[in-house]
Amino acid sequence: MRITAEQIQKENESQKEIHGFAFDYLSNTLECQGISVAAIIEQIKAFQVAIPSWALGAGGTRFGRFSFYGEPSTLSQKLEDVGVLHALTKSAGSISLHIPWDVPEDYTAIKEQAKTLGLVFDAVNSNTFQDQKGAKTSYKFGSLSSIDEASRVQAIAHNQEVISIGKKLGSKSITVWLADGANFPGQVNFQTAIQQTEKSLHQIYADLPKDWKMFIEYKPFEPNFYSTVIQDWGTSFMLANSCGKKAYTLVDLGHHLPNTNIEQIVATLMLRGKLGGFHFNDSKYGDDDLTVGSIKPYALFLIFNELVYGMANNPENPSPAWMIDASHNIKDPLEDLLQSLEAILEAYAKALLVDQLALRESQKQQDVVGCQEILQAAYRTDVRPLLAAARAKAGGCLNPIHAYRNLAVRSKLIQERGKHNVASGL
Ligand SMILES: [Mn+2]
Prior knowledge:
The chain has 426 residues and is α/β, with parallel strands linked by helices. It has 15 helices and eleven strands. 45% of the residues are buried.
């Protein structure tokens, strides 16, 4: 399944008129306020979000999983799906692989396919939250933090292998998320667990190539429900500092307790140059992994406001690696990802509209109402015509979901791959 430039052109013809009216209105309004529309479009166009290989099929809950026909079952098919997203949006130019789920059989062929689709390989992700076939020891009681030396040694070796696979693909970073923790008080010694984790991470870090980064993800609970070894950004930050310059904290939006002020975490990490990666999703209760922007779009905007400020004012913080990390349980995963890309870029574009100088001035004057007005003026602007213009300028679609449906992408994928139910093998 490939989407051609001609198909996109034809699609855009059908959307041109309605887009034109909306764009003219918005661009005249913004230019009147002294905002350079062309500059904002360039920034939106440059923003690329990685798609994780595991988000292309239907997700599940601990109660069950409802398959989606036409899901990819091979790495090549996963690349093909990201290729579709990138062709439509021109903002999904990379794929993040999960090892061992996505170990390439033929590196040359996979790299060639990625190149043809205009994709690069983003962070590689290690997996020590489940036992692998033929593994010598179990991760039932932890991996990098385990009291059992054999489990730690196996988990360190796995992460080192993930780095070596990533090197062959041209990845430049590894993301470590640990499920390690305890279900009951007394089960582990907190201090020992964090000490073991630190030592294990040092060993993985020692294997990191010079131009690589290591992202340390945190999460307060689940799969363990009493304690998690890397439970919050402070613990991740401490471990990243202990490892060295190439280690960073990774913020996953769903990995916080309800009502946590994530934008403040972002600001603090960027001030110290330690925000390395970012995972997008949304939640109502916990790590719900819902479509980003579907529940708390204003919070997403406030987070982007800090990200934009940080990118402009904290040069020692590298540009964070952006990735969608959601679970698509009832929607077509590709449509869900298109909605996610739209929500991310929408929040980013709105944050770019914030009048930073005026905000500083209002803060100096201690004009609370003025400060809120500035933020909300940006948030209340419908920036979707800017996103459409940026996409079209890059060779993508004015309206990706419309194009996806009009081109009957899912039916074609089902035709090509058959009505194979990946989860149950039916
Ligand atoms: Mn994540």
